[in-house]
Amino acid sequence: MREIAYESIVRAAKSCVKACGSLTASCADKLRSALQKESGSAARFALKTLLDNNETAMAENLAVCQDTGMAVFFVQVGQDAHVTGGLLVDAINEGVRQGYSENGYRASVLDPVTRINTGDNTPAVIHTELVAGDGIVLDFLPKGFGSENMSRIYMLTPSAGLEGVKECIVDAVKTAGSNPCPPVVVGVGIGGTAEKAMEVAKRQLLREVGAPSRDPALAQMEKECLDRINALGIGAQGFGGDTTALAVHIGKYPTHISALPVAINVQCNAVRLGHAEI
To answer: In whole angstroms, how large is the CA radius of gyration of the chain?
Structure first.
C-alpha cells in the first residue's frame, strides 16, 4: 500500500487548473488547419482572432477565455493507494480553490436555488474510477457553459438504428447554432443509462482533438457525422463557413436490450485540458 499525502493531491489539482491559460496543442493545430482551408472572410477573421487570442493568453499568463468553466475532474485511483491527511475530494477542491484564486480566474459556481456564488469555483465535479496500481491520475476539463448548456440526451429505441444516432448528433449541433462558440468538438456517448451515456460523452472530450476512435465502426461514424455537421454552414462563431466542428469523438458502453441512449456533450473552441500523475 502506497501512501499519498493530501497536500500532494492539492498541488496536482492546482497545477491542472493552469490549463485554463491555453488551448491544447491539438486544438490549436485544428484551428490553424481550419483557417488555411476556410473560404469565408468572416469565418477566417474569427478563426484568426481565436488563434491570436490564444497566443496573447499564453504570453500574458491570462485565461484563454473569460469563462473558465466549472472544474470537471476524471480521477483514476489505484486500489493500492491510500490518501493520508484528508479526503481525496477535499484535496481536489482545495487545489481548485487555490488555482482559480491565485490565477485570477473567474468564479462561476453557485447554489442553483439561492444563486449565491461560492466565491472560489468549488465544488468541482469529480468522476472517480478505481483502477489497478498505487498511483492517482487527474484529468481536468474546465467546462464553459455556453457549450455545456447545449448538452442533449436522446433516449432512442433500438429501432432507430445507427442512422437515428447520427441524426441526433447532427441535430444537436444544428439546434445549438452559434451558442456554443463554434467551431466545436462534439463528444458523444452511446449506450449505458442516461447518466452513463452523458459521462461517456464528456470523457470523449479528453481525447486529442481529431484523434479517431480505436473502434473502426465508431471512427467511420465520427467521420460521417463531422462531414454532415460541417455541411450545416454554421461556421466559426456562427459567421458561416466551412468548419462548424473540429472533431466528433464517439464512445460507447453496453446498454439494455430495449434501449439506445445517445448523449451529446458539446465543447466550445477553447479546448483546455490539465493532466497530473501522482
So the answer is: 19
